[in-house]
Structures are given as C-alpha cells and as structure tokens.
Amino acid sequence: MGKPAIDANNLPYADGDFYAFESLLTGKERDRLGEVREWLAAEVRPHAARWWNEGEFPQELIPKMAELDVMSPVRRQGFSNLYAGLLHAEFTRADTSIATFMGVHDGLFTGSIETLGSPEQQEAWLPDIYAMKKIGAFGLTEPLGGSDVAGGTRTTAVRDGATWILNGAKRWIGNATFSDWVVIYARDLADNQVKGFLVDTSLDGYTATKIENKIALRTVQNADILLENVVVDDDFHLKGANSFKDTNKVLKITRLSVAWQAVGQQLAAFDVARRYAVERQQFGRPLASFQLIQQQLVQILGNAVSSMGMMVRLAQLEDDGIAKDEQSALAKAFTTARMRESVALGRSIFGGNGIVTDYEMAKIFSDAEAIYSYEGTYEINTLVTGRAITGIAAFV
Q1: Mind listing the domains of the chain with CATH numbers?
Q2: Between 20 and 30 A from 205 (CA), which of 145, 157, 306, 352?
Q3: What was the pLDDT predicted at 27?
C-alpha cells in the first residue's frame, strides 16, 4: 500500500503566520479577522480567477461587502492599524483586484474625505460612503504625470464665483467606470496650489473610458478620465485640500495599505505553492520532497515573514502617532521587492501550470507587477528613503 495522501491544509504553519503575529491583535480583532477570512474564502477566492479572466468587476459583490461591514476599520470602527493592515493583507490574499477596489474606495477615496473634508462635508458624505451606497474613486495620476505629479499636476481648477471649473485628464483611476463620485486633485491657477474636489461622475463634461489590455488587476476597472469644463460647486471643494502637502497626508496612510498588499500577495503565493508542492506528484513522490522545492518555499515564507514583521512594527508606530513618511516609503519599497521575488519563485514551482490562471499562481504573479508600481514606484520610494538617511535628494 502507498503512503496516505498529505492534507496540505492541516500541516503546521499552513496559515503562513510563522511567528504568530496575529497573536498581537486583541481577541475581538482576531475573531473579526477570522470572520472576514471565512467570508473571503466563500465569496471571493473561488470566483477570482473567472472575474480576472473576464476583465469585469462583480457588481453583485458590493452589497455583500457592505453587509460584511469592513469600511474604515480604524477611524470608524475603532480597531488598531495592525488589524487594518492584516485585514487588507487578507483581502489581497484572496484576490488582489478586490483588495485594490477596497484600497481605492475605502483607502484613497474615503481617506480623502476623512482626512481633508470639513466636519460638515464628512457628516454629509461619509454615511453613504461607509454603507457603500456611494462608490468612490481617486483622481490624482495623469497621462503625462506619475511620480512627478506633485509638482506637475496639469489638471486645472479655476474659481468662478461660487463654483470651480475643472479641465484636464486623469489616468489609471480605479473604479472610475462605475463610481458615483471621484475625488479630483487639480491645480488652482490662481495660487498654483493643488486642491481637491468631490466630483459627481454624472456631471456634464465628465467622461471615463476603461483601460483595456492589462496584464495585471484585470478585475479592477481602471479608466482614463477626461474633464471638459466640469462645473463643481464650492461646497464640493474639500476644505482641507489646499496644497499637495495636504494630498500627501492621504498618500502616507494608503502607502501602508499597499505595503500590506505586498504581504498578502506573498501569503497567497505561499498558500498555493505549498499546497501544489505537497499534493503534486513527480517521479513518484510529492514535489515537496525535492530539496530545491523546499528551499524555494522557505524563501517565499522568509520574504513574507520579514515583510510582515516590518509592517507590524510600522502599524504600531502608526497607532502611536509617530510613523514617518520615509518609514512608509521604505516599507513600500522593501515589501514589494520581496513580493516580486516570492511570486516568481512560486510561479517556477508550478512549471508550465504556473502560466495559466487555472492554478491561481499566474494571476498572483501578474498582479504583483501592479502593486510594485502603484502608490509610488520602487525607485521613488527608495529615493525618498535615501534622502532621509543622507540628507541629500537624488531627485527633483
């Protein structure tokens, strides 16, 4: 008789939390994270490859996410930044596209309102946003402006009495093909400062066109936005968004979320690669019995654990109110570099099966490229950190 099959799901450390970081959460936070993990396993992961292949966003998932009630875990629900980070990592572990949807709506968009809106604006807008009755997008990046958008925003805002007139274009704006609102950052021609505006996507002069032919985050509906004399009432100018320094308050927080995505992406790679290696038979024995395969799995785990350790400490600093921009920059650069290595190792373990989405790894591998680039490229975040440790700026 042959040896009984190994149950990959019941092995020690199957959850990838090798150093028990989740034990740092409160009991309530651990229970809540477990509930969300079960929901993701039932509602998202089984369908994620199909959504990705079709390149369409599952609109039917939005009311289910609203019922799950995960919006604004720190500000609104009173959880720790550590819980919020692990939550975002779990969403990414199930599917990076759905996690990115949440990162845009609950992070960049909602974060703009929470951070830069006046109390009156927050009172008027946040209830529908939290209930996901209004879906949002975040319009900062432009066709000719990515890493240099801070000093080169081309979209303009002109004050005209009690209104503002917006003109310009934005690119790579997630959720924008179906969002109800979008926060647009535009340069005020009167004082040359970047200001933020809540724009109703049904306004005349606003158009959003889906970006096709992507190799990553295919479920996310990224769009090119065109603004042609869009008239916005001054009541929809975010009262705390009056310079790019204000905008950066939002980006500092959401950059942490992307670094947590890099953790979740590595845990996803570890999940599927470990299971495949244990269950796949080659030369009459499990693939995992070969030394080089074990070395690759351990490297993936080591990358994930080191990234998680960095993020756990950074979340604690954020909870204490002392986290710095350069610490967020280092985290984004380091964790995404480790992620890129991890998903490449995972893909190689699958051999030919690693290039088709049937086995999940191809999607994980491809989606990592988007995380590596958005919310500040690896290079820019590296130079931000380099400036902090040398006192010398290597970029303008």
Answers
A1: 16-130 (1.10.540.10), 136-243 (2.40.110.10), 245-390 (1.20.140.10)
A2: 145
A3: 97
